[in-house]
Design brief:
Elements (H helix, E strand, L loop, with lengths): L2 H16 L4 E11 L10 H19 L4 H4 E12 L4 E5 L6 H8 L7 E6 L3 E4 L12 H11 L4 H15 L14 H13 L5 E5 L7 H15 L4 E5 L3 H7 L2 E6 L2 E6 L1 H12 L17 E7 L8 E3 L4 E9 L3 E11 L5 E6 H5 L3 E3 L2 E9 L7 E11 L2 E15 L33
Parallel strand pairs: 3-7, 3-8, 5-6, 6-7, 11-18
Antiparallel strand pairs: 1-2, 1-4, 8-9, 10-12, 12-16, 13-14, 13-15, 13-17, 17-18
Helix pairs in contact: 5-6, 5-7, 6-7
Length: about 425
């Protein structure tokens, strides 16, 4: 955890003591009616068909079908409070209710039950580019979109050059948007919304759009907003961004509040819920795929384990089976952290260099690592098998394992999960001079 984030958390804890929450959600629930069509004028034929079908629809309702099966609770009894200046990450699987919650908080839709109290001006960035008119130029759409998002013309005038520079479409600002690529439209839409100055900013998955360079600028802008003292609600599947930007987190699961509090704790619970063997109490024995049958973690005595200690040697054993020989084979092992970041790659081609042939039938590939430099935490392994540079099989989360803490430096101090990714061997030397009066 970086120093500025720690300072922000300390500041937010102090503000929390003396300030009222800016957002109070009380038992929020949202019910949707699946398949409910918007009312419209019927044709004569449709009226006849509906009359003929009415007896069967009544019979279906009496037998227990119908409306009861068409009701879907997107959110149930969600309650929380957000202090001023807090940056809250909202995480959860697809369909967990994250976007529904943000739409209720943004007043786009009303809750079916419960209520929400918001103190301050709210700016929402839910769908980048909403409100753009394809026949208007980029310049005209900046003013149109800015107005839709609640900016005054004076605000837009003052920030226009900054918005255009951030978007990177200066050369085409007076060109109709219908001639823009989808990426240009997204960049301009985000640039407008990102330059709002509300007390409360609600953001939904904006870092999933655009190219890598634009995402980097988006992340920088979000960090600027997060450190400005404004309250932010931030939904993202980018766990590294949530961990880096947010001071607290909320986990939604099946439309309910599953956890809230410290970012690291909430993210650990979320990432654990995504894996089939979320708690690696024992090594996986099941077959993974057609060719790649198993990936096992073994200690220095070649025993199957589910966790290793820092500084200890370990091996990753890949069991394969094929009904024919695989020529020029390459096996890849990618190790990821709980935020989905690839930390390192182990490859038969990169580490061995020689061409590898796997015989027909069962075979085993073992990769030995003499020193585990990973910090304490949970990790996953993606395994992939190629032949003549053509992928044969690829399996994510083939193995989930834990790294346990250990005094690897011999100082009595144990590295922590929050210290980064790797434990680095280093020596310190201090030169001091006496202070003479």
């Amino acid at each position: 955890m970086n120093h500025s984030l720690q300072q922000r958390q300390i500041h937010n804890r102090k503000v929390r003591i003396v300030s009222r929450p800016v957002i109070v959600a009380e038992n929020l629930s949202k019910l949707y009616q699946i398949g409910l069509l918007e009312e419209r004028h019927q044709t004569f034929r449709e009226a006849i068909m509906q009359t003929a079908a009415a007896p069967f629809q009544r019979l279906r309702r009496l037998s227990g079908g119908g409306r009861g099966d068409d009701r879907f609770w997107a959110m149930r009894d969600v309650s929380f409070k957000v202090p001023p200046g807090e940056v809250v990450g909202i995480v959860g699987r697809n369909g967990a209710g994250k976007s529904t919650l943000l739409k209720v908080l943004s007043r786009i839709t009303e809750p079916t039950e419960g209520r929400v109290t918001i103190r301050g001006r709210v700016g929402s960035l839910l769908e980048v580019g909403t409100g753009f008119h394809t026949e208007l130029t980029g310049r005209e759409n900046v003013y149109l979109n800015g107005s839709i998002l609640g900016m005054s013309r004076r605000e837009i005038d003052r920030k226009f050059d900054e918005i255009v520079a951030f978007s990177g479409v200066e050369k085409f600002i007076d060109t109709p948007v219908k001639r823009y690529s989808s990426g240009m439209t997204v960049r301009l839409g985000f640039a407008v919304a990102a330059h709002l100055e509300p007390e409360i900013l609600i953001v939904d998955e904006v870092l999933a759009v655009g190219d890598a360079e634009f995402q980097r600028r988006c992340l920088g802008k979000m960090n600027e907003v997060a450190t400005s003292g404004r309250t932010v609600l931030f939904v993202s599947h980018n766990m590294a961004a949530v961990e880096g930007l947010c001071t607290s987190a909320i986990l939604l699961s099946g439309g309910t509040l599953a956890a809230e509090g410290d970012v690291a704790t909430v993210l650990r619970l979320y990432m654990s819920s995504l894996t089939t063997n979320a708690a690696p109490d024992e090594p996986a024995k099941k077959s993974l795929g057609k060719l790649l049958r198993a990936v096992r973690l073994m200690d220095e005595s070649s025993q199957d384990v589910s966790a290793i200690q820092m500084g200890e040697p370990f091996s990753l054993d890949v069991r394969c089976w094929s009904d024919r020989a695989i020529m020029d084979a390459v096996c890849w092992l990618h190790i990821y952290n709980m935020y989905g970041q690839r930390l390192t790659t182990l490859s038969t081609r990169q580490q061995c260099g020689d061409r590898l042939t796997l015989p027909a039938g069962e075979s085993s590939l073992s990769c030995h690592v003499p020193y585990c430099s990973l910090l304490p935490g949970r990790y996953s392994v993606l395994v992939s098998l190629e032949e003549h540079r053509t992928r044969l099989e690829r399996i994510e989360d083939a193995l989930i394992f834990d790294v346990l803490p250990k005094d690897v430096y011999g100082t009595g101090q144990t590295p922590r999960e929050s210290d980064g990714v790797f434990a680095t061997c280093a020596t310190w030397h201090a030169e001091t001079s006496e202070c003479r009066s």
